[in-house]
Amino acid sequence: MDNLTTILESCKLEISNALTMQQMYDIRVRYLGKSGELTTIMRTLKDLPNEEKPIFGKKVNDVRVQLEALIVEKESVLKEAEKTARINSEYIDITEPAKLPNKGNLHPITQVKNEIIEIFRSLGFEMRQGPEIETDYYNFQLLNIPKDHPARDMQDTFYFSDNLLLRTHTSPCQARTMQAKQPPIRMICPGKVYRSDDDATHSPMFQQVEGLVVDKGVTMCDLKGTLDAFVKAFFSEDTKTRFRPSYFPFTEPSVEVDVTCSVCKGEGCRLCKGTGWIEVLGAGVVNPKVLDDSGIDSSVYSGFAFGMGIDRMTMIKYGLPDMRLLFENDTRFLKQFN
Ligand code: PHE
Fold first, then answer.
1. 235 CA to middle of ligand 1, Å?
2. From the alpha carbon of 254, which atom of ligand 1 is closest?
3. Please, what is the angle between helix 21-32 and helix 2-17, to 10°?
4. Is the shortest distance between the CB of 248 and ligand 1 below 6 Å?
């Protein structure tokens, strides 16, 4: 009887101390299981005098029933607690701001290209495209750069063969357009061009926009007016242009066009190397020989052409110190243009 009381008390204590369902399972096995304490003590029944047997048997049973009830009760408390803990740990706060998906953006060169196209579209220019693999004929000869002409040295060319090359400028698209249609012509041709050049301000592949206008009575004034309107729309209304004499075989006269520095507004800074001016494009009045060679009568029509580097325009517009930033695909750089 004393043993039974000890068993009851120690089991009650363990039940009240138990913290997990696993501990409850162990208690159940240890006290009520097949070789548990109560079963073991029940085996001593046969050694008792006959008259004590029913009393002891009943007592053991009472203890079993009592323990069973306590265990069930504690188990239900623990189950409930475990459920609450799980709900708390798996709780999702639907009022928290959601993590936004990483949104990409157009590459800065693409953005600037689109902007340039849009400005010229608003001035009435149509867009044309030409092949990146060109023939010597379109890239050079039709543009008044015959074989062995020194002007070929201005453009370090990637050749596939004597006749096939990667276009070094978008100007062949001028010639192709003039061959394809009679004036009035007002077109731009944006696209990739290639030169064997690689440093902080030159990349072997870069992008240009060529522009060409051919009609009756087109003069240098039209060229100046058009480019002036363009840089004001592209940089800012207070941007000024400066035209310096230059040389291109396909234009005569030829100019190099500078704009007032977008950073210092002409005061002189690092971007413009203290001059207040930045060179942005080459242009000129179309050489009559180029018109005639392409099938347009130069005694009736005249025109102007210009070409600019999109990568260069992007660098100037955003004050980028190194062109290679545009080609490294570092998202920390690119997402600043979002
Ligand atoms: N094709 C010239 C270049 O790539 C730019 C240019 C285009 C100059 C049209 C004049 C007229 O350097």
1. 21
2. 10
3. 170
4. yes
Say which amino acid occupies 35: S
Pocket test for ligand 1, best of 171, 256, 280 (most atoms within 8 A of CB): 171
Distance from the CA of 337 to the center of ligand 1, in angstroms? Answer: 28
Cα separation values, 322 from 3, 195, 290, Å: 90, 18, 36
For ligand 1, the distance from its centroid to the CA atom of residue 251, given in whole angstroms, is 9
Instruction: In whole angstroms, give the CA distance from residue 189 to residue 113.
Output: 11
CA distance to 118, 215, 218, 288, per residue, from 300 (Å): 30, 8, 10, 10
Q: Is 307 in the pocket of ligand 1 (CB under 6 A)?
A: yes
The bridge status of strand 126-127 relative to strand 185-194 is parallel
Element (H, E) at 79: helix 53-89
Digit-coded pLDDT (tens) for 86-111: 998 998 888 888 888 888 899 999 99
Average pLDDT, the chain: 92
Closest atom, ligand 1, to C-alpha of 169 = 4
Q: Which residues pair with 134 in a beta bridge?
A: 165
Tens digits of per-residue pLDDT, 269-299? 887 889 999 999 999 999 999 999 999 999 9
| Tens-digit pLDDT profile for residues 309-335 | 999 999 888 888 888 899 999 999 999
Give the 3-state secondary structure of residue 161. Answer: coil
Our answer on whether the CB atom of 171 is closer than 6 Å to any ligand 1 atom is yes
How many CB atoms lie under 10 A from the CB of residue 26? Answer: 14
For residue 264, the model assigns a pLDDT of 83
Q: Are strands 205-215 and 302-309 parallel, antiparallel or unpaired?
A: antiparallel
Q: Is the pLDDT of residue 154 over 80?
A: no
Whether residue 282 has its Cβ less than 6 Å from ligand 1: yes
Give residues with Cβ within 8 angstroms of 20, minimum separation 6.
Answer: 78, 82
